[in-house]
Design brief:
This protein has 500 residues and is mainly beta. The protein is 6% helix and 42% strand. The protein has a 4-stranded antiparallel sheet, with no helix packed on it. The radius of gyration is 22 Å and the shape is globular. It starts with 13 loop residues before the first helix and ends in a 5-residue tail after the last strand.
Length: 500
C-alpha cells in the first residue's frame, strides 16, 4: 500500500508565481474603511472582560507552563482588529494533482514567529511577518507524513509519523513506522525513532498524540510511547488478543480507545493511562451497539459516540478522577464534525479529531447543523455544561455567516465567523459564555475565489495563535483554469495595530 509518489522538489518560475498572486490580490484581503470604522466604534464603546461585576481591559495572565506541557495560551485583544496578511504561501508544481489525486498537506502549527506546515514528504516553516512567501526552513522527511497531532509543547515542539519511502512491491511498502519530533521555530529534527512491530501501521489507521513529556502513537495492532526529551521508548504494546489500541487523546492527560472484536461488531472501552508506564488508571466501558467512538478531550474526558448510527449521536462526559459517567448530551441537531476530514477517509489520525466541537474546563461548545431558512442565523454554537449536560449559552451566527468554534482561550471560546459580503467581513471573535460578551479580535476578507474552501473546517485547518489566524488547506490541487500556476496553500492574518 503506497501513499503516492513524492512531489517534485523543483519550483515554478517566479513569473508564474507572481501572476497568481497578482490575480489573487485584485481581491483585496482586508476590511473596507467603512466597516472598520463601524466596528472600531463598537469596540471603543465596549469593555474587554467582566469579572466579579468589575470591568477590566486586561486579559487574565496565563499560568507559566513547563516546557514539556502541552501549550494552552490565552489570546489578548489587539489594539485594532483590522487584519492584514502576515503569511501567504503558494504550493508549486501541482499540474498533476487533481481532486482525485491531491497533494496532501496534513499538520499546521504556529508559534509567535513561525507557521509550520506539513506538505507530502516535508515540513516547511514560514516567517510570520507582513511579507509574502518567506520560507524560514524546510525539514525533509524520509517519506510522506502519515499522522499528525494538533498539540504543541509550551516551548514549541511537536511530532509527526512518517511513511518511509520503500521499493514498490516490497513487504513494508506503505508502512508508517517512523516518528519525528521537531522544533517548530527552527525546523530542527530533535529525534527520529523506528516504531517497534509496526508492520500494520498505515496512513488509514495510525494515530498520534502528545501529552506532558510523552509522544504516543497507536495503530490498532500496537502502540508505543516515547520520552519527549530523549526519544527513549517508555512502553509499547503488541496486540495478541481480540482487543486493539485504536488511538490516543493527549493534552493534559492520556486516554486510549480500545476496540475488541471484529470491526462490524466491536465493543469499545476508554482507559486513562499513566503516561510514563502505560498502566491503566480507570476504565469506562461503552454499551454494545456503539459503532464508533472519538476522543475530543482527555481532561476533562469527553467521548463522542456513534450509537446505532454512522454519525455522532451523543457526547458522554466522564469524571476525570474516576472515569464514571457524568452526563450524556444528545447531538440531535448538532454537527461536531468528528472524523469528517478528507471526504471521510480515515487519514492522518481521526480518533481525537472533531472540527465542530471544542471542549473547555467546564463546558463543551458544539456547532449546530446548517440552517438554510432566510432571515435567520446560518448556524449557532451551543455551550453545554459538562457535569449536568444542560445547555449553558448560545452564540448565534448571522444570515449567510456561519460560525465555527476554534479553540479555548482561557475560559472564553475563540470563534471564526465567515464573511457575508464585502461589507460584512470575516472575523475571529472571543465569546464569554458567562456574560454573553463578544469581543472582536480580527476582521478581514479572505480571497474571494478561495473563501468557501478556506472557511470549511473539514477542508481547511484553522489555527489561532499569538494574535494571528491561519487558514491551511488540507488537500492541494491544481487550478484547472491555470493548471501550471501555483496555488494558495496557507494564508495568515494578524492585526494591523499590534505586534506580537
Amino acid at each position: 500500500m503506497s501513499f503516492g509518489p513524492p512531489p517534485s522538489v523543483c519550483t515554478e518560475s517566479a513569473l508564474a508565481a507572481d501572476k497568481t498572486r497578482t490575480r489573487r490580490r485584485t481581491r483585496v484581503l482586508g476590511v473596507t474603511t467603512a466597516a472598520v470604522a463601524v466596528v472600531l466604534g463598537l469596540v471603543a464603546g465596549s469593555v474587554w472582560y467582566l469579572q466579579d461585576g468589575r470591568t477590566t481591559h486586561k486579559a487574565a495572565p496565563a499560568a507559566v507552563q513547563a516546557p514539556d506541557e502541552i501549550r494552552t495560551t490565552v489570546e489578548r485583544p489587539p489594539v485594532s482588529p483590522e487584519g492584514w496578511i502576515v503569511v501567504e504561501h503558494d504550493e508549486e508544481k501541482l499540474s498533476k494533482n487533481t481532486e482525485a489525486k491531491p497533494r496532501y498537506a496534513p499538520g499546521t502549527w504556529a508559534t509567535g514567529k513561525i507557521l509550520a506546515r506539513g506538505v507530502a514528504n516535508r515540513i516547511e516553516g514560514y516567517k510570520i511577518e507582513p511579507k509574502y512567501d518567506e520560507t524560514a526552513w524546510t525539514l525533509k522527511l524520509d517519506g510522506h507524513i502519515c499522522a499528525t497531532s494538533r498539540d504543541v509543547t509550551a516551548d514549541g515542539r511537536t511530532a509527526v509519523v512518517v511513511q518511509p519511502a520503500r521499493a514498490k512491491g516490497s513487504a513494508k511498502e506503505g508502512v508508517c513506522d517512523e516518528v519525528v519530533f521537531f522544533d517548530v521555530d527552527t525546523g530542527e529534527k530533535l529525534w527520529q525513532k523506528k516504531m517497534p512491530a509496526a508492520d500494520f501501521a498505515y496512513v488509514s489507521n495510525t494515530n498520534l498524540t502528545l501529552t506532558e513529556g510523552v509522544v504516543a502513537v497507536a495503530w490498532g495492532r500496537g502502540s508505543v510511547a516515547y520520552d519527549m526529551k530523549s526519544g527513549r521508548r517508555l512502553w509499547n504494546s503488541t496486540t495478541l488478543s481480540q482487543c486493539e489500541d485504536k488511538g490516543f487523546a493527549g493534552g493534559r492527560a492520556l486516554l486510549v480507545l480500545v476496540a475488541c472484536g471484529e470491526s462490524t461488531n466491536a465493543t469499545y472501552r476508554v482507559e486513562k493511562l499513566n503516561t510514563r508506564t502505560g498502566k491503566t488508571q480507570w476504565t469506562y466501558r461503552l454499551a454494545r451497539g456503539v459503532e464508533g467512538v472519538y476522543l475530543p478531550s482527555s481532561d476533562p474526558p469527553v467521548l463522542a459516540v456513534e450509537a446505532g448510527d454512522s454519525k455522532v449521536t451523543d457526547l458522554i462526559t466522564l469524571d476525570p478522577a474516576s472515569g464514571k459517567r457524568r452526563a450524556t448530551i444528545s447531538m440531535d441537531g448538532y454537527d461536531p464534525k468528528c472524523g469528517r476530514r478528507y471526504y471521510f477517509s480515515p487519514f492522518f489520525g481521526v480518533v481525537d479529531n472533531c472540527d465542530g466541537l471544542v471542549v473547555g474546563r467546564t463546558q463543551a461548545f458544539v456547532m449546530s447543523k446548517e440552517n438554510i431558512a432566510n432571515d435567520q442565523p446560518s448556524d449557532w454554537i451551543v455551550a453545554f455544561d459538562l457535569k449536568k449536560g444542560k445547555s449553558a449559552g448560545k452564540f448565534d451566527g448571522r444570515e449567510s455567516q456561519m460560525v465555527v468554534p476554534l479553540r479555548m482561550s482561557g475560559d472564553e471560546l475563540l470563534v471564526y465567523r465567515r464573511s457575508g459580503s464585502s461589507v460584512d467581513p470575516a472575523a475571529v471573535v472571543s465569546w464569554n459564555p458567562r456574560t454573553d460578551k463578544e469581543t472582536p479580535y480580527l476582521l478581514f476578507q479572505l480571497p474571494e475565489d478561495d473563501e468557501y474552501e478556506l472557511s470549511d473546517p473539514e477542508r481547511t485547518e484553522m489555527v489561532v495563535e499569538k494574535g494571528h489566524v491561519f487558514f491551511a488547506r488540507r488537500e492541494l490541487v491544481r487550478d484547472d483554469k491555470y493548471p501550471t500556476d501555483s496555488v494558495l496553500s496557507v494564508i495568515g492574518v494578524g492585526s494591523a495595530g499590534l505586534k506580537h
